[in-house]
UniProtKB/TrEMBL annotation, chain A:
Annotated localization: Mitochondrion outer membrane
UniProt-recorded name of the protein: Mitochondrial fission 1 protein
A biological process from GO: mitochondrial fission
Membrane topology, record value: Single-pass membrane protein
Organism: Lentinula lateritia
TrEMBL record, chain B:
Protein name: WD40-repeat-containing domain protein
Ranges of the WD repeats in the UniProt entry: 349-391, 392-424, 479-518, 577-599, 600-639, 680-711
Highest taxon listed in the record's lineage: Eukaryota
Species this protein is from: Lentinula lateritia
Coiled-coil stretches: 234-303
C-alpha cells in the first residue's frame, strides 16, 4: 500500500481543464444526491491539488482535510496527500508536520522520505531567496548612499 | 565561514540560477513562486556582474547561504529525525533559523501570496488533525489505494480506449456505412461494447451472415478492416494489449470501489436502523410511562374520593400508596384498542364444546391457544380476526396448562407429557385434519427435531397423509417423565419448569428436551426447613401420599368438581422458583440446589394459581382467598377474600385480576384498593382461566367460550 503513493513530481502535473471539470461535475452531482463517495471526493481533491491555481490547491487541501476527518481508514494515505498539498502551496511548516507524522508511522516510505527532502529544499530555497532579497535591498541602499556621499564630498 | 575563498563568489549567481531553474522544473506550474523567482532572478543578475563595493556585501552573505555542507546537513538532519522534529518543531526552527530568517521578508513583502480565509482555515486545522488517531487501514482501504482509484476513474483512464478506437477508425467511414446498412436491416450489433475487449471484434461482426446483396460488400469490408488491423503492427498490438489489460484492471478497481461504497452504505443503513429501533423503543417506553401515570392518576383520584368519604383508614392507605409508587411496574405495552370502551368483552370465541381448561396468548391481537376439558387438541386462534387458524394435534388427554411466548407454545396434558410447538407451523387448514399436504413447507427442520425425539417415520411418508402424521408438523418436542397429569408449567427462554400431580416439579432444557432436575414436594414436606411451620398447613396435607383429591367448594352456580391438580402454579425468575401446591403451601425453591428453602403457609386449601414479581407473590386458592406475600419477609402483605374458590389470577403493581368461580371477572385495583367486576357481554358460567397483557384480557369460562376484553 505504501508504495502506491505518487511522488511529489506527480503533484506538479496538472490535469487538463476538461478533466478537472469532469471530476468537479461528478463531485457536485454526488453532493446533490447527498452522498459523496470517498473516491469521488478524493479524485476531485487530488485534481485540485494538482492544479496550478492556488485557490484550487487550497480547496483541494480543504477537501483532503474533510476526508481525513471523516474516513479514519484512509487517514494514513491522506497524511501524505495533505503533506503534498501543503508543500505545493508553500506551507512548508504544515507539510513537514504531516509528512513527519506519516514517517513516524512508516519510516521506510520512499515517497514520504523524498517529500521530506523536497520540503527541506523548499524551505532552504525560500530562505535563501529571502536573504538575497534583503541583501539586494541593502546593496541598493549602499549604492544610493555611496552616490550621495560621493556627491556630497565633491561639493 | 566568512573565511571561505572568495572564488566561490563567482559561482553563486550561477548556482542560484540553476537552483531556480531546478525549482522551475519541479514546480513549473507553481505560478506564484515562479513569478517570485523570476523577479528574484532579475534583481540578482545585475549584481553578479558589477564589481563595486555593494557586491562585497553579497559576498559576505553568499557563503553563509550557499555552503553545500550546510544544506546537506539540514536536509539529512530533517530526513533522519522526523520524529523529534515534529515533537519539538521549535527546535527545528532554531536549527533552520537562517532559512526562517530568510523567509521572513518573503512572508512580509511582495504580496505574492494572497492569504485568504480558506488558507487560514486549512492551516488552523492542521494542529487539530495532527492530534487525531491514525488507525491502521483495513478493509478496502488496505486493498485499493486512493491513488489507484483515482487513476482508474479519472477521465484520462478512458483515453487509451478512445485512442485505440481512433487507431482503428482508419475505416471509420466504412464502419459508419456498415452500421447504416445493418441498421437498415435491423442487424445493428452492439459493436461498441465489443471494441474495448478485442481487436478482432470488428471482423467478427463482419462475419455476421447477411443477405445476398450485402454479402459482397461485407466481404470486401472484412478484407479492408483486416488489412487495417494488420497495418497496426506488432508493437502497436502489444501496446494495445497492455492497455486493454490495464483497462480491465481499472475496471476491477472500480468494481471494488463500488462494492466498498455499497458495503459502507449498508453499514450506515444498519446503524440508522438500530437508531430507529432504539427510538421506537423510547417511544413505546414513553407511552408506557404515560399509561402508568394515567393509571396512577386514576387510582389516586379514586383513593381521594374514597378517603373523603371515610377518612378513618388514613394510616393504612398511606403506606400502601407509598409502596405502590415505589414499585416498578411491569412493561405496560401501549394499547392498540384505545378506541374501545374499557371493561367490555369485544370478542367471543366459541368453538369449544366444554369448559376451558387452559389458555394463553402471544400478544394483544396475536395468537391465542386455548384448550377445553374434553378435547385433547388445543385450538390456535388468530386474535386479529377471531378465527381458528389450526389445532395442536398430539396430546391424548386434556391439556391442563399452556404457555405461549411469541411463536413458541408449550402445553402440558393429562397424558403426562409436555409438548413444545412452533405456532408458525400450525396447519392453516380446518380442524378436519385432511388439509392439503403441500402447505407444510417448512418440514425439513422440524423433521430433524421430531425424528430425533420420537424416532418416527422419515420425511417421505408424510405425503401418505393421515391425521397421525399431520399432528406432528408443529410439534417440535415431546417431553416425557412425569407419571401423572401435568398441571402447570412455566418457561422462559430455554428453561421450562413443570408441576404435576405426581407431586414433583421438573426442570427441563428446551433445547435438548432433557429433564435437568426433579424437585419432590413430598420430600420437601417430610424435611421441613427451619422457616417452615408445618403445623400451619391444613389438615390432610401431611396425608397427601397417594392420589390427591380435594373436593372444591361450590362455584357461584352451585357446581363443583373434585380438584386433583396437585401443583397449582409455578413460576421462576433467575434461580428462584415458587410453587403453589395441593397442600396449601407456597414454596420457594433454589433451582441450583433443588431445595425448598422457604415455605409460606397461610392457605387452608390447595393453591390453584400463583404469580410473583420483584416484591410480591400472589397465590389464589380454593379457600376463596388470594394471598399477597412479601417476597423478602415471607409475611402476608394483603389478603383478598372472595365468595368462591379462586382458579386463576394475574397481577401487576396496580391491579389483581382473578377468576373466582363467578361469571364476572374480578379486578382489584391495588392503588385505590377498590374491587370491580367485569360483566358486560361476559361469560354466562363461572370464569375459570384468564390471562392479560397490557389492557388486553382473555378469559375462558365454563360456558365453553373464550372472551377477549379491553380493560
Amino acid at each position: 500500500m505504501s508504495t502506491e503513493l505518487p511522488y511529489a513530481a506527480d503533484a506538479e502535473v496538472s490535469l487538463s481543464y476538461d478533466e478537472l471539470e469532469v471530476l468537479r461535475l461528478q463531485y457536485e452531482r454526488e453532493q446533490l444526491q447527498a452522498h459523496v463517495t470517498v473516491q469521488t471526493k478524493f479524485n476531485f481533491a487530488w485534481g485540485l491539488v494538482k492544479s496550478p491555481l492556488r485557490e484550487h490547491q487550497v480547496e483541494g487541501v480543504r477537501l483532503l482535510q474533510d476526508l481525513y476527518r471523516s474516513e479514519p481508514t484512509r487517514r494514513r494515505e491522506c497524511l501524505y496527500y495533505l503533506a503534498l498539498g501543503h508543500y505545493k502551496m508553500g506551507n512548508f511548516e504544515e507539510a513537514k508536520q504531516f509528512n513527519g507524522l506519516l514517517m513516524e508511522k512508516e519510516p521506510t516510505n520512499l515517497q514520504a522520505l523524498s517529500l521530506a527532502q523536497l520540503i527541506e529544499k523548499g524551505v532552504t530555497r525560500e530562505g535563501y531567496i529571502g536573504m538575497a532579497l534583503v541583501g539586494g535591498a541593502a546593496a541598493l541602499g549602499t549604492i544610493v548612499l555611496a552616490g550621495l556621499i560621493r556627491r556630497a564630498t565633491r561639493k | 565561514m566568512p573565511s571561505d575563498p572568495p572564488g566561490s563568489l563567482r559561482d553563486e549567481p550561477k548556482r542560484n540560477g540553476r537552483n531556480v531553474l531546478d525549482s522551475i522544473n519541479t514546480s513549473n506550474s507553481l505560478a506564484g513562486s515562479s513569478k517570485l523567482q523570476f523577479i528574484q532572478n532579475a534583481i540578482m543578475t545585475p549584481f553578479s556582474h558589477r564589481k563595486n563595493e555593494s557586491s562585497s556585501i553579497i559576498s559576505g552573505l553568499a557563503p553563509v547561504i550557499m555552503t553545500p555542507r550546510m544544506m546537506k546537513a539540514a536536509s539529512t538532519v530533517s530526513s533522519k529525525q522526523p520524529r523529534e522534529r515534529i515533537v519539538n518543531s521549535s527546535m527545528s526552527r532554531s536549527r533552520m533559523d537562517f532559512a526562517t530568517l530568510g523567509r521572513a521578508p518573503l512572508r512580509l513583502g511582495l504580496g505574492t501570496r494572497r492569504v485568504t480565509s480558506r488558507d487560514l482555515e486549512i492551516v488552523e486545522a492542521t494542529e487539530q488533525l495532527l492530534h487525531v488517531e491514525v488507525p491502521e487501514p483495513d478493509g478496502v482501504a488496505s486493498n485499493v489505494s486512493l491513488l489507484r482509484g483515482f487513476n482508474a476513474t479519472i477521465p484520462s483512464a478512458e483515453q487509451s480506449k478512445s485512442r485505440r478506437r481512433q487507431m482503428r477508425s482508419v475505416d471509420a467511414p466504412h464502419i459508419g456505412l456498415k452500421k447504416l446498412g445493418m441498421n437498415a436491416r435491423g442487424l445493428l450489433a452492439d459493436e461498441d461494447d465489443h471494441e474495448g475487449q478485442s481487436v478482432t471484434s470488428e471482423d467478427d461482426v463482419v462475419m455476421v451472415p447477411r443477405s445476398d446483396a450485402t454479402l459482397r460488400k461485407g466481404k470486401r469490408r472484412g478484407r479492408e478492416s483486416l488489412s487495417a488491423t494488420k497495418m497496426l503492427g506488432k508493437d502497436e498490438l502489444t501496446r494495445q494489449r497492455k492497455e486493454i489489460l490495464r483497462d480491465k484492471e481499472n475496471i476491477n478497481i472500480k468494481r471494488s470501489l463500488v462494492n466498498n461504497e455499497i458495503m459502507e452504505i449498508t453499514h450506515k443503513i444498519e446503524a440508522l436502523d438500530d437508531i430507529r429501533t432504539k427510538l421506537e423503543k423510547d417511544l413505546i417506553k414513553l407511552q408506557e410511562d404515560e399509561l402508568e401515570l394515567d393509571d396512577e392518576l386514576q387510582g389516586v383520584k379514586e383513593r381521594l374520593e374514597f378517603e373523603q368519604s371515610g377518612p378513618a383508614r388514613m394510616s393504612q392507605s398511606f403506606q400502601i400508596l407509598h409502596s405502590s409508587r415505589r414499585r416498578k411496574g411491569p412493561a405496560f405495552l401501549p394499547s392498540e384498542h384505545d378506541e374501545l370502551p374499557p371493561g367490555v368483552a369485544f370478542m367471543t370465541l366459541d368453538s369449544h364444546t366444554a369448559p376451558i381448561s387452559a389458555l394463553d396468548f402471544s400478544e394483544p391481537y396475536g395468537t391465542l391457544v386455548s384448550a377445553s376439558v374434553e378435547d385433547s387438541q388445543p385450538i390456535v386462534w388468530d386474535l386479529l380476526s377471531g378465527t381458528e387458524s389450526g389445532r395442536l394435534r398430539g396430546h391424548i388427554g386434556t391439556v391442563k396448562c399452556i404457555q405461549v411466548e411469541d411463536t413458541v407454545c408449550v402445553t402440558g396434558s393429562e397424558d403426562c407429557s409436555i409438548r413444545l410447538w412452533d405456532l408458525r407451523l400450525v396447519d392453516a387448514e380446518g380442524s378436519d385434519g385432511w388439509g392439503d399436504e403441500g402447505e407444510i413447507v417448512s418440514l425439513s427442520d422440524v423433521a430433524e427435531e421430531d425424528s430425533s425425539e420420537e424416532g418416527t417415520r422419515p420425511n417421505g411418508i408424510r405425503n401418505g397423509m393421515g391425521k397421525e402424521q399431520k399432528e406432528d408438523a408443529a410439534c417440535l418436542r415431546v417431553l416425557e417423565g412425569h407419571t401423572k397429569t401435568v398441571t402447570t408449567l412455566f418457561f422462559e427462554d430455554n428453561c421450562l419448569v413443570t408441576g404435576a400431580s405426581d407431586k414433583t416439579l421438573r426442570q427441563w432444557d428446551l433445547t435438548t428436551g432433557q429433564c435437568v432436575m426433579t424437585m419432590d414436594i413430598l420430600w420437601a414436606i417430610a424435611h421441613p426447613t427451619s422457616s417452615t411451620l408445618a403445623n400451619n398447613l391444613f389438615a390432610g396435607a401431611a396425608a397427601s401420599v397417594g392420589t390427591f383429591a380435594f373436593p372444591m367448594p361450590p362455584r357461584a352456580d352451585g357446581s363443583w368438581d373434585m380438584y386433583e391438580d396437585y401443583v397449582g402454579g409455578v413460576q421462576f425468575w433467575g434461580y428462584g422458583l415458587v410453587s403453589g401446591s395441593g397442600d396449601g403451601a407456597v414454596r420457594m425453591w433454589d433451582m441450583r440446589t433443588g431445595q425448598a428453602h422457604r415455605t409460606l403457609a397461610g392457605h387452608s386449601a390447595p393453591v390453584t394459581c400463583l404469580q410473583f414479581d420483584e416484591v410480591h407473590i400472589a397465590s389464589g386458592s380454593l379457600d376463596k382467598t388470594i394471598q399477597i406475600w412479601d417476597v423478602r419477609t415471607g409475611g402476608v402483605f394483603e389478603t383478598l377474600k372472595y365468595d368462591h374458590p379462586v382458579t386463576a389470577l394475574q397481577f401487576d403493581t396496580r391491579k389483581v385480576i382473578a377468576a373466582t368461580g363467578e361469571n364476572g371477572v374480578k379486578i382489584y385495583n391495588r392503588t385505590s384498593m377498590q374491587h370491580s367486576t367485569l360483566l358486560t357481554n361476559g361469560h354466562t358460567s363461572p370464569v375459570e382461566r384468564l390471562r392479560y397483557m397490557d389492557r388486553y384480557l382473555v378469559t375462558g369460562g365454563r360456558d365453553s367460550t373464550v372472551k377477549v376484553w379491553s380493560l
